[in-house]
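ingest -> validate -> predict -> emit
validate: passed (alphabet ok, no gaps, 165 aa)
predict: started
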Amino acid sequence: MGEAVNFKPKDVLADEVPAIGVSISHQVAEDRNLVFQTHLAGDCSPAVLNAYLDKAFRASERQKARVRLPQAKKDLARLEKAHQRATEDILRLDAERDAARAEWQAAANRSEKRNPGSTAQQRAHEQKNAADRANALTTHNRIGEDIGLLKAEIAELEAAIAADE
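emit:
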């Protein structure tokens, strides 16, 4: 950013110079708007006008961040719980698969057949478990990516809030 521009009383409004009316409306949430209004001297420099516009925009972006941050943190907590549930689903599916395999192996050991092989039911169970695990893993990974994006957004929101403090 360039050098700081200081507003002088003559830049804001002089009696003998026509004024420029400036209104800036900025939506900070679905149901909230901020409106900045001022008058600047009609012959103020572009630097003064731009400095005011930049200042109003930064203030509105900061307010937008202040409104969004609490909801973003709630969303993160919700996603982290969903991520934990997805992890538990993967572990449960792995445990079910391992238990079924152990049961089948025990039955094969008790069998009088030399090489009993797997039954159609066992193969169907393995396929269903593999498909369920693939779905759970996809969900787990997608939620993990969403968490990463949301954490980045929260960091940006916090930086926007802290920038002008």
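The mean pLDDT is 86.
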